[in-house]
Amino acid sequence: MSILVKDKEVVVPGEALADDLGFIPGYGTYRFNNKLLASRLGLVNIEGKVIKTIPLAGKYLPKRNDVVIGRVIDILISGWRCDINSPYTAVLSSKETPEFIEKNDDLSRYFDLDDYVVAKITNVTSQNLIDLTVRDQGLRKLRGGRIISVNTHKVPRIIGKKGSMVTMIKQATNCRIIVGQNGWIYVDGEPQNENIAVLAINKIASESHLSGLTERIKEFLEKETGVKINLEDKGDYNGLQ
Amino acid sequence: MDFETKKHIIECLEKDVRYDGRKKDEYREIEFKIGLIETAEGSAYVKCGNTEVIAGVKISVEKPFPDTPEDGILMVGAELLPLSNPKYESGPPDSVAIEVARVIDRGIRESKSIDTKSLCIVKGEKVWSISVDISPINDDGNLIDIGSMAAVAAILNAKFPKYENDKVDYKAKTDSLLPFNKIPVAATVLKLGNNFIIDPTELEQEAADSRLTVTITEDNKLCAIQKGGDGTLSIEDIDKMMSMAIGKSHEIRKHIKQ
After folding, report:
1. A123-149 tens-digit pLDDT
2. Which domains are assigned to chain B?
3. How would you classify residue A172: left for phi > 0, otherwise alpha for psi between -120 and 50, otherwise beta?
4. Shortest distance, CA B30 to any CA of chain A (angstroms)
5. Residues of chain B whose C-beta is under 8 A from some C-beta in A?
């Protein structure tokens, strides 16, 4: 077994990562003859026998069980079509709402055009038809606040380990923040604090590759808000809020 | 623009906070680069926040319009390129592009800062024609003001090409500048709810009820005015917006002069 690249090396599409069948291709890689090649530009990640690439940029690709923020772009006969910042649109069926909707009810009473909604992806088919649901804890229509957009591949860094990063921002700024896996983030609070939260989020997205990120964001937030942050107090994070 | 987003922008403005942390009457950082395009007689690039605009000046010899045989020709055009913002499409200019071009054109023309009589070569036969083209490279709002800055800076930078034996030699530039004496500055004030703001971003521009563009020359002379948007303005509103615009125009003029 031999690997041709180092861990965390930048690779381009078509670059050989390994040249025998002992490795399993993960996300952004494929087998070609006896080789394992990269199909995306990104960093190599080797975990045991699995090799995958972590993309540096690009559109959001929907995955099942992701919590995303969508914008209603069309009202269908029995549901809503949502833009989820992805090449494919998603459909939220009227059967997937917490309350029962009568057959001939006016659907715009529940979600209207241009409304933002936090939803969970229940299914992604091979044809990239995406189904959403709002029948879970914390899934709802978003009111007030503002939506900002960041690189979807930075979302894990914005959330942090078990939500540590986003909890820290929430603690410091007292804002309600919902991070969608698709790179759309909802921020609602006092206007001045919202600005600080947005700056902090953009700072994370642009500096995520440098080490000591949590420390720097903590310093930044303490300087801007004047609130002392206790990193031990993690609060409850359920993948939403 | 959806209702919730607009409501939230206005709520923030009531508390004197804008999304990018600026004050209501604060401009984004302005950067000028002059004379970038060698094939044009004059050019300027202006960057204001994320909005970037390039303006170029072409000077040619044309037949004058029959009703003004002694006057040179001044034309300002703007094309909103699809590369600057996904909302624009290629093809003939739409109403937004026409409005941007016309408001800037009116500001420069009515300021009488170009003495069109001095552009005459042979009466009724040949005059200099100055055409200014404005292309936004990136549109993040406030195209009228920034386009106007770029247009004026490009005109100030423009030099006549060599003219001999009825022929224009574009390769040889002379040192003579255009006869441009007063600097007109366009300043746009937006009304959102009961708030007045200057230098809007694209988001603020979409949320605005109405807008007033005022063009002022150096000696505080008003030379053009344009109202846009669906909302109405009372006389007090206009007074407030005008004084805001006039105050800001001096600041912008300092930038252009540099």
Report:
1. 999 998 999 999 988 899 998 888 999
2. 11-257 (3.30.230.70)
3. alpha
4. 21
5. 1-5, 7-9, 11-12, 15, 17, 19-21
